[in-house]
Amino acid sequence: MTLPKKHLFELPQGVIYLDGNSLGPLPAQAANRVRDVVTRQWGGELIRAWNTAGWMALPQKVGDRLGRLIGAPAGSVATGDTLSIKVYQALDAALKMRPGRRVILSDNGNFPTDLYMAGGLIRTIGGEHELRTPAPEDVEAAIGEDVAVVMLTQVDYRTGRLHDMAAITEAAHKAGAVMIWDLAHSAGALPIDIAASNAEFAVGCTYKYLNGGPGAPAFIYARPDIVQSIEPALAGWLGHDNPFAMELAYRPAMSTERLRVGTPPIVQLALLEAALDVWEGVDMADIRTASLELSNLFIAEVEARCPQLTLASPRDGSRRGSQVSFRFEHGYAAMQALIDHGVIGDFRAPDIMRFGFTPLYLDREDIVKAAGIIEEVLGGELWRDPKYQVKSRVT
Ligand SMILES: *Cc1c(COP(=O)(O)O)cnc(C)c1O
Question: Which of 19, 23, 84 is the best mutation target for the ligand 1 pocket, counting ligand atoms within 8 Å of the beta carbon and taking the most?
């Protein structure tokens, strides 16, 4: 199936973009929206815009729109900061809910910043907690009675392997642990029903599949029944119940707004709003169907043409997010050569060539064409050119 949304993006000519899982492309209306916010609202209204242009309400408005895409009820998603910060907030709140337990359980496929933030938090609160990172397939068995919180990223950023959200959340709760899901590679990629999962927290970013732009604000979901018991680690003034009362003592907002910290990034939020317009009327089940169709086609085409590559993602689509990764010893150079030939994916150390599938703006024709270019680059060993061996800061 094809979703008629390609015209809502500005994609450069001659490029097949298979990296929307890392940085979504530019929505066609984004530049206009930003121009309006910058010139009319900021330029014309000046500080009045906090009220007249609805800037103060924007984080919650955007949170509600994100909520629809992850199965979260209105008012349960706060936006702002970056995902790393939201991971810290969720983890700290979760640990405070289980004061007698000392273990944070994650997995060794998790994105490094999630693990780094957990380590930093442990050191900040006294160093008596322990971060455990078994292999992803061993997580469920590792949920014991000493675990305070299970913190997992649903879709593995390297391999695309998908955790079973319902089963793991249930196991965590059965053992008395708090569950945090990182939806960085899930939001906008597959249907999620975070409310039905019963998880206490979810966090995610909006610059990947949601196309909010570089540095777009992150989000945090807290289950409505626990919100008022959360003691925010980052007790910023905009999480206060009444910021402009300017009280000396901190008193958290009675809603998810207590997970706000400081002044919201209005320009970035406006960009994200423009990106979310594209999602209006989109059914995540249709996205999933189309994404599996595209990624299965990609696997079949690439495996038939490129014996040099080894599939690193689960072959079974139901166990995969919306990306496909291949292992190749010279993956970095090969990816540089591919980008040079019009197929943009990315590389993750040590040897992963990663390709994301985003049905809003990709169709079968793009996939077949991309596979042809990959065959040309690998079969002809075009990646051996010395110019493709030079490492950039971002891979
Ligand atoms: C992309 C990603 C991040 C990035 O965090 P930022 O603070 O936005 O830079 C964190 N965690 C996971 C799982 C990710 O995939």
Answer: 84
Are 336 and 383 in contact by the 8 Å Cβ rule? The answer is yes
Q: Please write the tens of the pLDDT for every residue from 34-56.
A: 999 999 999 999 999 999 999 99
**Whether the model pTM is above 0.90:** yes
Q: Note the helical H segments in 180-330.
A: 194-197, 266-279, 284-305
Q: What would the pLDDT profile of 329-379 be if each residue is shown by its tens digit?
A: 999 999 999 999 999 999 999 999 999 999 999 999 999 999 999 999 999
Pick the CATH number of 6-27+283-388 from 3.90.1150.10, 3.30.360.10, 3.40.980.10, 3.40.190.290: 3.90.1150.10
Tell how far the Cα of 247 is from the centroid of ligand 1, in angstroms: 34
Q: Which residues line ligand 1 (CB under 6 A)?
A: 82-84, 111, 113-114, 153, 157, 182, 184-185, 205, 218
Whether 208 is catalytic: yes
Q: Give tens-digit pLDDT for 217-230.
A: 999 999 999 999 99
- Residue in 182, 288, 298, 357 annotated catalytic: 182
Q: How far is CA 43 from CA 35, 38, 39, 370, 389, in A?
A: 10, 6, 5, 44, 46
